[in-house]
Amino acid sequence: MDNTIRISAVLHRVIVGNCQKSKTYAEKAISDASNIQADIIALPLLSLVGASSGDLLKQTSIVKECLDAVSAIAEQTADINAYISLTSPVLRNGKAVIANIVLHSGEILSITPIDEEQPLFDCGGLKTVFISSNPLNLMLNATDYIKKGVQLIVNASAIPVTVGDIEKAREIAKAFSQSTGCAVALCNGNIGESTSPFVYQGFAGVFEAG
Q1: pLDDT digits (tens, 9 = 90+) for 13-63
Q2: Distance between CA atoms of 208 and 120, rounded to whole angstroms?
Q3: For residue 121, what are the contacts with CB-CB under 8 A and spacing of at least 6?
Q4: d(CA 31, CA 126)
């Protein structure tokens, strides 16, 4: 990898089910990352509402609040020359699904449901893809992008953790970057998620060449 880019894998506080307050924490985290001149700012899965929101994610009102928050963040980051990745519930055929969203310089570049093929971006000369996947399944879910010449995979997630999961996720990302030559950024979990019935814990990491 010839180019050097700065990646900020952000962990910030959420208020479960409260998009407005969670957005405030997200905006502060994005601002802090921008202040250290990050070229890519990645937020964990559903960090505008909380991955532990459960059935709330299916409510049309919550979907609208989240998308309003995305639009507000895009507007407020118009002067930030960084790719910002986040996720939100969106409506597709009348059904709420989770989508990856990529922002840049105040524009919404893409909104793609996480179970669909994700678009590729040129981030500082690096072919980059933003995905949302269980980091323990990285080998399975990211291999097809390697065949497309992707050089950087940014993976947002919010998996509940059990003993050993965090270390295992990091070892998988390290091994993947070593075997494929593709850098990996992990960003999992949000501070303040509900602990019922699962335990969430934030962790992040950036890996290159093992």
Answers
A1: 999 999 999 999 999 999 999 999 999 999 999 999 988 888 889 899 999
A2: 19
A3: 83, 102, 109, 127, 128, 129, 130
A4: 23
For 123-136, the pLDDT digits (tens) are 999 999 999 999 99
Residue 94 buriedness (CB in 10 A; 0-12 / 13-18 / 19+): exposed
Q: Is the pLDDT of residue 200 over 80?
A: no
Distance CA 202, CA 34 (A): 21
pTM: 0.92
Distance of alpha carbon 63 from alpha carbon 27, whole angstroms:
19
